[in-house]
Model the fold of this input.
Amino acid sequence: MVPRGAAMVTTKWFFEPGHTGAEFRARHMMVAYVRGQLKNVHGVLEVDPDEPEKARIEATIDATQVYTGQPERDAHLRSADFFDVEHHPTWTFVGSRIHQVSATEFEITGDLTVRGVTRPVTFDVTYLGQWDTPWWEDGRDLGTRRRAGFAATTRINRHDFGVSWNDVVDRGGVVVSAMVDVMVDVEAVLDAGETAP
Done:
């Protein structure tokens, strides 16, 4: 997922949870979109810049912290009607196939697990570049660490994952759309001891 370069080595990156997050949106009452956010996202990326198609990617999302800005709605989303976080507190994604479309565009197909149900999903991913940045831990300046940015999008049918609550409105409409757009912003940090590509 990093453009081809001179290096011939696999590098390991971790998702920095404070600057990585997922967002989803669904149509509400047949008209406007309502969005939700999930901020506690962890993951790992292992990639050879010369062979990005062989990269390994895994991510875990904490569904218990879903936030839409409306407490009652958040509680409903956490309930068994939707995410059932009591029994399924996390979602996971494990990439299995990567297709490089251009120098900065990729298609990543893998298994997405939501509410204990696993389905294949393809994300369209844009590589946003990388930079050497300051790195602090516990108030200590540890020098610089390489960061890389990615933006990923996909669209899923929530019913495929057993998230099927709904109600009807006038003229055969529904409260919540079946199709949900998913957006993920990743800030990945090169593991300590790794050499930047």
Remarks:
- The longest helix spans residues 71-78.
- The first strand starts at residue 11 and ends at 15.
